[in-house]
Amino acid sequence: MRPCVASGLSTLGPRHVHDLPAEVITEAFWFLSFIQVLHAAQVCQRWRDLGIDHPIFWRYITVTSITRGSLEMLRARLGQTDDRPFTLHVDVPGADRLIETKLMELINISLYNVRDLTIHLDGIFFYQLLAVLRNHAPKLQRFHIKLYAPDRWMAQLPITPLIFDSMPGQLEYLRIEDVIFPDSPNIPAFANVRTLVLCMPPDAFTDFPTFLFEYCPLLEVLSITIGTMTLHAPLPPAATAGLARLDHLDVHLSPSSVVDFVAKVPLATIRAVALGGFVDFDTVYDFLEPLRSPFNFTILRNGHDVWTTVESRATRYTRSFVQHTSVYKHYSGDPASNPKANALYDNEDFPAQVEMLTVSLSLWDTMMPYLHNYKIVTVLTLHLDICGDEDHPYRLPRSIYAFPCLSALGFCTRPSLDEVGLVHVHPRDLVDFAGRIAVTGPQCIDLYLPTVGMAVVDRSGLLEQEFHSVTFIEWRGRGY
């Protein structure tokens, strides 16, 4: 008689959670938060050893409060890095004395192995912090420093030219907020920086920062936020040469400085340029002058800003206008009475040069009255920035705006996928929406859906029946 399965298993003896292989436990810890790993580490000595050696315990370290307990935990986590690169984010406002007596020591300990370092501290600790930052940081790739100060009045404190032991190292990304650069011919530690973000108070003023290209000779991406910038034409040769090496430039200035900036700074060779704030009629067209039609036109909500981007399809050069979302309350009424509207929407010739259009769905009803003349658009991409769950799927807009030449409809979930989460859309809603915007109906439309971030449960195969084709692809930010 053949033994049953149960009797066969009984010969193996009792099974316990402690019999799980270390690899299985370690893999399971990846599904836990840092706090949950701490709780799991209290199960037994074996789980404790696996927990504190897990990357969730030591690889991404955040410090947002200063107590003796939090500092001891920070010391323990730093101790577990064991010569392995990690991320340290310190964001502690206030003037607690433990910052000077304990935290600075731990930041100093971290420098040898830290790969990504963010420090936000009160400005009164600036000179103690500079003394720590003079030490070598051979593995550092990203560095962000920001000072807290009343009314941001301490933006006159210069960073030391001897930072990170004057060694270039691996530092490629640098973000500096409310800290100025020193009057020094060079900063050796910044020699390999390729991305620089400089943020200063809105009432600050400066000449064009030519010195940035001298400190960072390999600079490719530059973002500047400052109040007023004084420009003298022509710019120094070092500034012109540095601008010519840039791939991306992002500038947020006062309105008067924006006009001067576009008029006097050579931007034609830079592939991607973004301007923050309101831009007047003439400046809009001076800014767009390097681009040639046909265009891709994008209107995306990204955090607290809306990016309006014109891209030349031939060269892939882009020019973007960045405005705070609060400005878009003016767009909700009659387009003819909107004092804040971008001058592009008053240009009767521009719609006939746009072949690809991308719009955030949260802006659809607001912006479509400005886009009803875009009759040659062949590809429409919708950015899903509004969430819907499986039981209550997101409903696509009901308003009817027809695109006579439309041949492709796509959906994307970036750049704000992490903020929104999974977006659920009903397949019937997709078909009906295509019927509202495509003169020829969905049968002539190629549908493109993202591989991540969007869920369309189509058990009946409705999409394959109604659309010309259905393709799942990875979104790459330039349409389909």
From TrEMBL:
Gene3D superfamilies: 1.20.1280.50. Coiled coil: none annotated. Residues 14-61 form the F-box domain. SUPFAM superfamilies: F-box domain. This is F-box domain-containing protein.
